[in-house]
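Practice problem: predict the structure.
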Amino acid sequence: MPHRSGTLTFPDPIDPAQARQDLDLLQRTAKGDRMAFAGLYDRVSRPLFATALRILGDAREAEDVVHDVFITLWHRSVEFSEDRGSPFSWAVTMTRNRAIDRVRQRRRRAEILAETPPDDLGYDDTNGAAPVDSGGAMDARERAGAVRQALATLPQDQQRAVELAFFSGLTQQEIAENLRQPLGT
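Answer:
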């Protein structure tokens, strides 16, 4: 019996026949069977996307999360254990956890940016006046300096990718387009 998620309809993950087919696809994927992986993708990509979209509210980020989940499914399918549930529930749980992590990253990024604006915005320019500082601002500047030092140790192309992700809030897809690199590079 199919169930609905918004406007999407997909097979019921509890259907025993479908669960057996999912298990077969995942086991074959674990052996490197690309056709089985494609079948697994066809079977679960829509409900995974719907799950990520519901949590994130952004289609591009939802696509990124689902992409990451399928990379993990390909690489870690050998680790799957039937004792812990169905392949479908494993994939949905991964999707849910990664989407929630994205939401948390957004919040934290916004908090950090609110505390320490980038130098190029001119907020540190005192025009020759003596700086007025509080302990909190000093601590924020020290943390920002440590982050900048760590960033400076990365190769230039990696620095740019981190800056686009962190300061511009771009998704993996947007960063790939911006840097003219294949997704996942």
